[in-house]
Automatic annotation (TrEMBL):
Protein name (Swiss-Prot/TrEMBL): LRRCT domain-containing protein
Location of the LRRCT domain: 426-482
Keywords: Leucine-rich repeat, Membrane, Repeat, Signal, Transmembrane, Transmembrane helix
GO cellular component, one term: extracellular space
Length: 548
């Protein structure tokens, strides 16, 4: 294979250098693969004179040219007469230029063209009719232009188009795809659509993936969408009316809309795997059975409790559940659940997690669970045996309001967490009751992932305010139980090695300042060396990765 490839490159290069292809290969990158030659002229300033500088006529004469990349060249005018001789061209990338129309000759003459990329140009319209019957185009990218309407000047056109991307334009109506019957992938996101046509999408009986996110849609009716659809992305619209029908859809994203209710007929989506309703106004969830559901995101709705209907009985395959940002009165899980990941963040209303709260929650069979309870600004109490019954993979309790955590919370199962225990950003009161953290937990965290200690600080008592716990890593005495004056004195020795951000509040002498300055300088130098070394390692890794 390798030998074969080298041979091809060699023979191509020979041909190239014999004939006058040399020109373009001096400026662009020419290479050859089994399926034909590739010329990559990305960002070569070819369009400076408003037309291509190269004589493309000769390009295709010796070795079929498979792919031509002319992206990012400020091309304003396409030299159609020259391009049209590239009879074998399959892929043409014209993205990131200044083209404001599409010449129909492209399709008339380049009969083998399969993949055409016009993204990031200045197109304002397009007549779909020029994709005539002979065109073999299957992938067409018109994204990031100024298109407000796609027209169709003649009837009965048939195309082989499978992938069409018209995202990031100004489309406000859709009367064009009646004839794009082979479409499998359609991206209409980031346009100005207020509604979807009632019937014409139904005709796209091969359509599998549809993006209609980031438009101005007011309703979504699956009855108007083809049965073949598997993935539907409708997030960031103004949908308040969702009508369902039997469908094979397995991914449905209706995040950030205005949906108040999901009814029992959600069960019509029998194959649903991934349901994202984040950012709507649900106050309950229907009692439906969905055999394949794996991910359910109910975050940022109007739930006052975690719905009892979310259960292993209803969703035997549920892996991930998110209920972030709801006005929950409590976090209690009221039905049996077996998950891989459970998230409850940004809940302003909860103050306490008691031993009942997570009793019904545990890991999936032969697995472990990631639990994230983070950024709940009033959450200040957690009982000691909350996680006892679970096999925890990672536990994130960061940025809550815990002044104290019971040591028994971190029994064998929890402190053996494979990945992480994140307790950062809590206002811990570092008194004798928290000494166990210093003695038992800090060394463990240090060995799992030192970065977990970066923002693990004491909020009090006053002499310790804002100090990092890692200060006292490996100290023998029980620092948090100790005598503070003695302790503050010893702290000066250690302080420079911890942080440059820290406010130094103790009284100073000139000698101490000098010692401190030296230490800080040393620390800075070491940090820089560290950064350089890591960078190097990363580039090295990247290089290694690239090889495979
Ligand atoms: C344009 O499309 C081609 C073919 O699909 C692709 O290889 C290329 O990366 C695209 N260019 C950009 C800038 O996305
Ligand atoms: C179309 O081009 C844009 C921008 O270059 C790119 O991000 C997008 O992935 C492309 N679409 C498809 C379907 O390849
Ligand atoms: C389009 O096709 C329909 C049915 O196949 C036919 O009746 C009609 O005459 C055709 N129109 C044109 C303009 O060819
Ligand atoms: C789904 O259920 C709701 C409420 O019961 C009802 O109003 C709606 O018509 C149903 N939709 C379909 C498509 O059956
Ligand atoms: C949330 O639900 C309460 C009643 O439970 C209702 O009064 C309130 O308007 C709802 N808020 C939103 C944003 O839907
Ligand atoms: C659990 O957490 C670990 C560490 O953060 C991560 O690598 C893993 O992908 C997570 N698993 C799931 C199902 O989220
Ligand atoms: C740890 O978790 C496993 C699985 O949930 C459980 O069987 C075991 O009793 C737990 N161990 C402890 C010490 O709690
Ligand atoms: C430590 O501080 C916590 C929180 O303020 C308090 O509940 C606890 O009683 C204190 N423990 C000791 C030994 O002072």
């Amino acid at each position: 294979m390798m030998f074969n490839y080298c041979n091809l490159v060699m023979s191509l290069l020979l041909i190239v250098c014999n004939k006058c292809l040399c020109d373009i290969c001096k400026t662009c990158i020419c290479s050859a693969l089994n399926e034909g030659a590739i010329i990559d002229c990305h960002d070569r300033h070819l369009g400076i004179n408003e037309a291509l500088n190269f004589d493309l006529l000769t390009l295709d004469q010796h070795q079929p040219l498979n792919k031509l990349i002319l992206s990012k060249n400020n091309i304003v005018l396409l030299p159609i007469n020259e391009l049209k001789n590239l009879k074998h061209l399959k892929k043409l990338d014209l993205s990131q230029n200044q083209l404001d129309n599409i010449h129909s000759d492209i399709f008339k003459n380049l009969n083998d063209l399969e993949d055409l990329n016009y993204s990031h140009n200045l197109l304002w319209g397009f007549d779909i009719s020029i994709l005539n019957i002979d065109s073999s185009l299957s992938k067409f990218n018109l994204s990031h232009n100024q298109i407000s309407s796609l027209e169709k000047s003649s009837e009965n056109i048939t195309t082989k188009l499978k992938v069409l991307d018209v995202s990031h334009n100004k489309l406000n109506n859709l009367n064009f795809f009646d004839d794009l019957l082979e479409l499998e992938y359609l991206d209409l996101s980031f346009n100005k659509l207020f509604s979807l046509p009632v019937k014409s999408l139904l005709r796209l009986q091969h359509l599998k993936i549809l993006y209609i996110n980031n438009n101005h849609l007011l309703d979504l009716n699956l009855q108007n969408l083809p049965l073949s659809l598997l993935e539907l992305y409708a997030e960031n619209n103004f949908i308040n009316c969702l009508s369902l029908q039997k469908s094979l859809i397995y991914t449905l994203n209706i995040q950030n809309n205005r949906i108040f209710n999901i009814y029992k007929n959600l069960t019509l989506l029998e194959g649903l795997k991934d349901l994202n309703i984040n950012g709507n106004s649900l106050s309950e969830f229907p009692d439906v059975f969905l055999k394949d559901l794996e991910t359910l995101d109910l975050s940022f709705n109007n739930l006052t409790m975690i719905p009892q209907t979310v259960s292993i009985k209803n969703f035997p395959n549920l892996r991930i559940l998110k209920v972030n940002g709801n006005p929950l009165k409590d976090v209690k899980i009221r039905s049996e659940l077996r998950l891989e990941r459970f998230e409850i963040n940004f809940v302003k209303t909860i103050e306490e997690i008691d031993k009942e709260t997570f009793l019904m929650l545990r890991e999936r069979k032969n697995d472990c669970i990631n639990i994230t309870v983070s950024n709940n600004k009033k959450l200040s109490t957690i009982e000691e045996n909350v996680f006892q019954h679970m096999n925890i993979c990672s536990l994130d309790l960061s940025n809550n309001c815990f002044a104290h955590l019971p040591s028994k919370l971190f029994d064998v199962n929890v402190s053996n967490a494979k990945y992480l225990i994140n307790l950062q950003g809590n206002p811990f009161i570092c008194n004798c009751s928290l000494q166990w953290m210093l003695s038992a937990l800090i060394p463990k965290l240090y060995s799992i992932k030192p970065s977990l200690l970066e923002d693990l600080r004491c909020a009090g008592p006053p002499p310790l305010t804002n100090k990092r716990m890692i200060h006292w890593y490996k100290w023998k005495g029980k620092v948090f139980c100790g005598d503070f004056s003695h302790f503050a004195e010893r702290m000066t020795v250690n302080i420079a090695s911890i942080s440059s951000k820290q406010v130094v509040t103790f009284e100073t002498s000139p000698g101490m300042i000098a010692a401190l300055a030296t230490a800080i300088t040393l620390f800075a130098i070491l940090t820089i060396i560290g950064i350089l070394l890591t960078r190097r390692m990363i580039t090295k890794k990247k290089r290694i990765n690239r090889r495979f």
